[in-house]
Amino acid sequence: MNARDMVARLNGLDEQLCDAYGVPRSGDAATLDEAITMAAATTDRVLARDRGIRDYAGVGAFLAAQVQAREMRAGGRDGVVRSLTEGVRRMKKAGSLQGLGRQACTELCDGLGFDHALLSFVVDDGFVVDEN
Q1: Is the distance from CB of 65 to CB of 24 less than 8 angstroms?
Q2: What pTM was computed for the model?
């Protein structure tokens, strides 16, 4: 699971928990750090509202996802370095300059979690964008 998937998971579990316990929701998080902060705030609101939490399977899943997100954030730097190293190895096999550009965009999205990447280059007096 990558960071984007974890953010989506925490957003979904947060919505389920807020609906189940009738607590206001702050909205969707966009980053892993925001998702961790949002999840902790929701946990606090649920506990403040209902000290006798019913046996709700979603609470356990929500807490487990928070732990997993924190572990992911803690190990993120090591993962980024590993992804970069593996990406450079794959880019060495590109075969052409155009292939290298496409592979670099792929590595940014697949390996590092970017939503979009594009390659542009200068031709005469302007830029040409090669969308990947």
Answers
A1: no
A2: 0.50
